[in-house]
Write a structure and sequence with these properties.
13% strand; globular; 37% helix; eight-stranded mixed sheet; 23 helices; 606 residues; alpha/beta
């Protein structure tokens, strides 16, 4: 084990001692009460199985057969979630054949960030994670279940499901992926058309044609954004069956993996002799594995928020310094768009998660001794890959090494020696920066600030030609308390155009960018956020800002006494608290914790 990994792990364990112990005490007390269904009054139980077949009623009236909850984020607008329409039927049949019962316990909301990107609905996106966690808890609150299967893929949905699952940490859990869509228009070509549209060189017809060729069928979008980062992290924490994350939907192998997940969960209930509750599985080491996977693949910066909230749900306390320390020892081993030209299907063909996990384990950069949902308990089995033959589904040894070194590399020859995630600090606060997709010559920028309070104003200024210069765009009042912390990908094409024209440009914001963060350097998630009086709210047009994503420094070059004496600016952006349901989330905005503590309403945060 790498000594720095051991040190970070020990620090997290020590920091979490009290909160983790309290969490385990709560879930262990729930376990000791036995199967909850047996404690229900007759009227409660009759309601719980009223719609079941007669033989299932007999099964559920006793405690000899396990009842498996299905929690699904299905809707048929999200391409990644559309395949889930068939999963409950597959699951129920497989569970029944294996000697259990499965009930659809609840559906949770699932919004598509691709649809809401740059739109008012995006201001609900981050908070949808907490809503999903609460909806998951409601689905499980009937006390009818011995374990649960979770169906979700995208952005805030998997973090929400996982937080909800951890609130029922006494129940075993298996997460069931749906897989990516087949490869469509190459991502680089999609970005090229977007930039041409931003410049006015192609019209909406050409842009829509390009986007439709990229996002073209059921399945997850193929770039390595938050959705595919979710799948990677759930597998590297041991909550997916080995090698199951990136198998395309509507294929025989995908269906067999779904049925196998249903059978697998039955092995781990308290009714058997191999009890594996999720609250014990997701511990300090599992959370650190997720961070390592994120760094090794150049995954979504959203997880510098989500993982903190997920960890806290399990009584584990992590912070951005843990990400920063691990980033210094975990090299970038995958080149998936936006960090490279390949998509997740190319990653899978190159050996996928099996090759990545094996390489990290060989080099002492991953905890192998975590409790997983594989047949064996540790991570060693996750180097295997599922195969479908005449004899059915089985797992074979994976290729052992990358099948395409332009997509998956090795620790001895990494794409870059660090994980490409830097904690930013200086007199403008603390934030994060992802530089795995930023060319080295663009990673350090010193330029005058151009200050905005609304992303639409940035786009308008670009169209007027006012940003045709070296500049650092400062976009304020984008934090969770201000407007729900929407992603700001609407800015990526115009800022990319400016960079291509030879200008030195960067973005600093208390908002988010996420897994599609691209070639323009940025400092995001800046804390304290502007609405809380963060120093970014004191920056004025023309102030010189030095952004160095290599050293993690972000400073405004103004005399410290003068800067300190400045009044915090008021938010000039209006109309962000009403319409499109935003008026319902005033309480979420008011009580949201900082980005570094998970931007959440679910836990008390000092």
């Amino acid at each position: 084990m790498h000594p720095s990994l051991e040190k970070v792990t020990a620090d997290v364990v020590k920091r979490s001692r009290e909160t983790r112990a309290a969490y385990l005490a709560r879930i262990d007390a729930a376990v000791e009460k036995g199967p909850h269904r047996a404690k229900l009054a007759c009227g409660n139980l009759a309601h719980g199985f009223a719609a079941c077949a007669s033989d299932e009623k007999d099964d559920l009236a006793g405690t000899q057969k396990a009842n498996i909850a299905i929690i699904s984020a299905y809707n048929d607008m999200l391409s990644a979630h559309e395949p889930y329409k068939d999963f409950p039927t597959l699951i129920k049949q497989a569970v029944r054949e294996a000697g259990g019962v499965a009930q659809f316990a609840g559906g949770v909301p699932a919004m598509c960030d691709g649809v809401t990107q740059g739109q008012p609905g995006m201001e609900l996106s981050l908070f949808s994670r907490d809503v999903i966690a609460m909806a998951t808890a409601i689905g499980l609150s009937h006390n009818m279940f011995d374990a649960a299967l979770y169906l979700g893929v995208c952005d805030k949905i998997v973090p929400g499901l996982l937080i909800g699952a951890l609130s029922f940490g006494h129940l075993p859990a298996v997460f069931v992926p749906a897989g990516p869509m087949p490869s469509g228009l190459p991502n680089k070509e999609k970005v090229r058309i977007r930039q041409l549209y931003a410049e006015g060189k192609v019209g909406r017809k050409e842009l829509l044609e390009s986007e439709s060729q990229s996002y073209h069928s059921p399945g997850t979008c193929t770039f390595f954004g938050t959705a595919n980062s979710n799948q990677m992290m759930v597998e590297i924490m041991g909550l997916h069956l080995p090698g199951s994350s990136f198998i395309n939907p509507y294929t025989p192998l995908r269906d067999e993996l779904t049925k196998a997940a249903a059978r697998q969960i039955l092995k781990f209930t308290a009714l058997g002799d191999d009890f594996r509750p999720i609250g014990h599985a997701i511990d300090e080491k599992a959370i650190i594995n997720a961070i390592i996977g994120l760094l090794a693949t150049g995954g979504s910066t959203n997880h510098t928020i989500h993982l903190i909230a997920i960890a806290r749900a399990a009584g584990v306390i992590i912070n951005w310094d843990d990400f920063d320390k691990l980033s210094k020892i975990v090299p970038l081993l995958a080149k998936i768009y936006p960090n490279g030209s390949a998509d997740v299907n190319h990653f899978q063909a190159a050996g996928g998660m099996g090759v990545l996990i094996a390489e990290l384990l060989r080099n002492g950069l991953l905890h192998g001794d975590i409790l997983t949902i594989g047949d064996e308990r540790g991570m060693g089995q996750y180097s295997r890959e599922p195969k479908l033959t005449d004899g059915g589904l089985h797992w074979a040894e994976g290729p052992g090494a990358s099948q395409d070194e332009t997509v998956i590399s090795s620790v001895s020859k990494p794409f870059q020696p660090t994980g490409g995630l830097t904690v930013m600090h200086g007199n403008l606060g603390r934030g994060v920066s992802k530089i795995s997709a930023v060319a080295e010559q663009h990673q350090v920028v010193t330029a005058p600030a151009v200050v905005f309070d609304d992303q639409d104003d940035v786009v308008a200024a670009f169209k007027r030609g006012e940003l045709e210069k070296d500049c650092i765009v400062v976009l304020r009042f984008q934090g969770p308390k201000a407007n729900g912390m929407p992603e700001l990908h609407k800015l990526t094409p115009p800022l990319g155009v400016l960079q291509d024209r030879g200008f030195k440009v960067a973005l600093i914001t208390d908002g988010r960018m996420s897994g599609a963060s691209g070639k323009v350097p940025s400092a995001i998630h800046m804390c304290p956020e502007c609405l809380d009086g963060g120093p970014l709210a004191k920056v004025r047009d023309g102030d010189i800002i030095a952004l160095n994503t290599q050293t993690g420094e972000v400073n405004v070059q103004v005399d410290s006494a003068e800067f300190e004496a400045r009044t915090v600016a008021a938010n000039s952006a209006k109309g962000h608290h009403f319409g499109m349901g935003r008026e319902l989330f005033g309480g979420f905005r008011a009580h949201a914790s900082s980005a570094e503590t998970g931007a959440t309403n679910l836990f008390y945060v000092d």
